[in-house]
Specification:
- The protein is α/β, with parallel strands linked by helices.
- The protein has 2 domains: 126 residues, 2-Layer Sandwich (Enolase-like, domain 1); 266 residues, TIM Barrel, CATH 3.20.20.120.
- The protein has an 8-stranded mixed beta barrel with strand order 5-6-7-10-11-12-13-14, surrounded by 6 helices. Strands 3-2-1-4 form a 4-stranded antiparallel β-sheet. A two-stranded antiparallel ribbon has the order 8-9.
- Strand 2 and strand 3 form a beta hairpin.
- The relative contact order is 0.15.
Length: 424
């Protein structure tokens, strides 16, 4: 189905951290209009598409997005309004050509992504299809499962003022058979963890960017042990009912030569040994960014040592970038992609990244960012493209909007949860 763009507009809004981002509105000929908001990351890879910020230190500390908004209203509107597009790929190609840079730095990835998403939502409405069905069609598949959630429990790193080296400890409700059950299990573990934090650290709820608890952990192992203790205290069996996933975010404590993990200073081989030991001592089923984003020679060894029992998941390492994904496939560096659409800038480029990963037999985790909005398009994208979804914790409306959308899709479509890889 072709769609003619009638008008594009945008406004500056605030994300979940109180920082500006961009919401775009796309109006199609015939009167259908839809809006979408671009998220923003804190833990960002060097290969990510560029968010355009105003740089005016007197307003939002230089983080304003008025320039990006003006690019939507003027440059992008003038270039796309009145044109008829055969589909998402044509719109996104036009946006990339208009920008003309390799990292979306002229118009801003925040402006480009907001327009790409707004067109997608408007086109789905024009076709009278749910957004997840529209997204699924972009990669030639149908939505037949719900993604299994990996849900933030404890936070450190850039999400929590670097109170601990590792960025996130997430729980995986591996035995849950529905999204409803998965969220109920998570609630129990989260409340047990909150009680543990109060008892052990004399600290009431202090939530990080994505809603995780952030007490002053003394060691990385303390984070893992406390997570296991919370699972057990909630009445679940660690390693059977509930597993762990960790976002190490190693690039943020790599000093150019060594990994400064807590009190330890480790080379690449020693960092791999530490990660392998954790995977053998705790019920860990996924390790994200276990090594620095440019430690290419070590990543294949980490993947080999972890084998197929643990996902070797690339985030900053891959940046949802097809060039980096192809290199990782060729070198055997990963077996899973953390997909963040704003890392690359358009829906179509993210679809290419997703298909490369799937063709290689990888798993795909569709992920939110630390700076989110109440927009829930990510839930539809995860249903269409993902094996797993990583949104954050079960607090804060910016996170709950996605979980509530997944519950609505579950009630509407009665889709089963995706099984965890190698689960019994």
């Amino acid at each position: 189905m072709t769609n003619t763009v009638l008008a594009l507009d945008a406004m500056e809004i605030l994300d979940s951290r109180g920082r500006p981002t961009v919401r775009a509105t796309c109006t199609l000929a015939g009167g259908i209009s839809a809006s979408a908001s671009a998220p923003s990351g804190a833990s960002t890879g060097s290969a990510e598409a560029l968010e355009l910020r105003d740089g005016d230190a007197t307003r939002y500390g230089g983080l304003g997005c008025r320039t990006a908004v003006s690019h939507v209203r003027r440059d992008i509107h003038d270039a796309l309004a009145g044109r008829t597009f055969a589909g998402q790929a044509e719109v996104d190609a036009a946006l990339c050509a208009l920008d003309g840079t390799h990292n979306k730095s002229r118009l801003g990835a925040n402006a480009i992504l907001a327009v790409s998403l707004a067109f997608a939502r408007a086109a789905a409405q024009a076709e009278r299809r749910p957004l997840y069905a529209y997204f699924a069609g972009l990669i030639g598949r149908s939505a037949h499962t719900l993604p299994r959630p990996t849900i933030n429990l404890f936070s450190g790193g850039k999400h929590a003022g670097v109170r601990a080296s590792m960025q996130d400890i997430l729980i995986v409700p591996a035995a849950a058979r529905s999204m409803d059950e998965a969220l109920a299990v998570t609630y129990g573990v989260y409340q047990a963890a909150a009680a543990l934090v109060l008892r052990k650290y004399e600290m009431r709820l202090l939530r990080a960017d994505e809603g995780g608890l952030a007490p002053p952990f003394t060691t990385p192992e303390a984070i893992l042990s406390d997570a296991v203790e919370a699972i057990d205290a909630a009445g679940y069996t660690p390693g059977r009912d509930v597993m762990l996933a960790i976002d190490v975010a190693s690039s943020h404590f790599f000093d150019g030569a060594r990994y400064q993990l807590g009190a330890a200073s480790l080379n690449s081989a020693e960092m791999i040994e530490r990660l392998v030991r954790w995977s053998e001592s705790y019920p860990i089923v996924s390790i994200e960014d276990g090594l620095h984003e440019d430690d290419w020679s070590a990543w294949p060894e980490l993947r080999r040592r972890l084998g197929d029992r643990v996902l070797t998941l690339g985030d900053d390492f891959l940046c949802t970038n097809p060039v980096r994904i192809v290199r990782a496939i060729e070198t055997g560096a990963c077996n899973a992609l953390l997909l963040k659409v704003n890392q690359i800038g358009t829906i179509s480029e993210a679809a290419q990244a997703c298909m490369l990963a799937r063709d290689a037999g990888w798993r795909v985790t569709v992920s939110a960012r630390s700076g989110e909005t109440e927009d829930d398009w990510l839930a539809d994208l995860a249903v269409a493209w993902g094996d797993q979804i990583k949104v954050g914790s079960i607090t804060q409306s910016d996170r709950l909007a996605k979980y509530n959308r997944l519950l609505a899709i579950e009630q509407e479509m009665h889709l089963p949860l995706m099984r965890w890889p190698n689960a019994a």
